[in-house]
Write a structure and sequence with these properties.
The chain is mainly α. It has nine helices and no strands. Helix 1 runs antiparallel to helix 2 and helix 6 runs antiparallel to helix 7. It starts with about 25 loop residues before the first helix and ends with a helix.
């Protein structure tokens, strides 16, 4: 989930971290993952084509908070069902072996995402197309806004990274090379937001975090980058 005008979303040096030891291919789980992300994309584009734009104050509503928690809760249950539980290796729920290197790569990923977003926003403004962030700050409704902000900056990055860079990347690399897995999960992430103009920006976002997952062997750096970006974009949107 990406908000705001900027879009609310170890090996040695130069050596990608291994995706883990060879695992038995799991085509059934991959089909289930593909069905889930396909359903998310179809639902998002159906909502977009229906012409029902979000209300200007959507992030000031408690109903938005409740709906988002239900949505992400269902997604998390389905992720764990497809993974057959908390499969730490498959989901990338392992701390990076080289933490300093992972921190440096996370910084590189964040710079790439911010640069790409800034370069493309004048032409492909995903944040404006998404239309979720309010134009003005309403201090009288700060509490529901902060609750929704917690979803945008904590819940969404955790669940989305687990779905795409965790489960999706883990399953796809059983069948294809890491770059194909990075591209597929990145584009799937972009499509899940149901945007047209914003699709290139969101796909670059997803591809960059997929690369980070590959390089570090963990979903945690991507979750942190995702969270920082969403928090910065949301703060900038209400402050300006």
């Amino acid at each position: 989930m990406h908000e705001g005008s900027e879009t609310l979303t170890g090996g040695g040096i130069g050596v990608p971290a291994a995706a883990g030891p060879a695992r038995k291919q799991q085509p059934g789980r991959l089909v289930a993952w593909g069905a889930l992300v396909g359903l998310l994309a179809a639902a998002s584009y159906a909502a977009r084509l229906s012409g029902s734009d979000p209300a200007d104050d959507v992030l000031y509503l408690w109903s938005t908070f409740a709906g988002a928690l239900i949505q992400y809760g269902i997604m998390l249950v389905l992720i764990l069902a497809i993974a057959h539980g908390v499969d730490r290796l498959l989901l990338g729920l392992e701390a990076p072996a080289a933490r300093r290197r992972a921190a440096g790569l996370a910084l590189v990923a964040l710079v790439v995402i911010v640069t790409a977003t800034a370069a493309l926003s004048p032409f492909l403004d995903a944040g404006d197309e998404q239309g979720l962030v309010p134009d003005v700050w309403d201090s009288s409704r700060a509490v529901p806004f902060l609750a929704n902000a917690a979803v945008v900056t904590i819940v969404a990055p955790f669940v989305e990274e687990l779905l795409y860079r965790g489960l999706g990347f883990g399953l796809l690399t059983q069948f294809v090379g890491p770059w194909s897995a990075i591209l597929v999960t990145g584009v799937a992430f972009g499509l899940a937001h149901g945007l047209v103009l914003g699709l290139p920006v969101l796909s670059i976002f997803g591809i960059t975090l997929g690369w980070l997952r590959w390089q570090t062997g963990s979903v945690y750096p991507g979750m942190i980058v995702h969270s920082i970006f969403n928090a910065a974009a949301l703060a900038a949107a209400v402050a300006l």
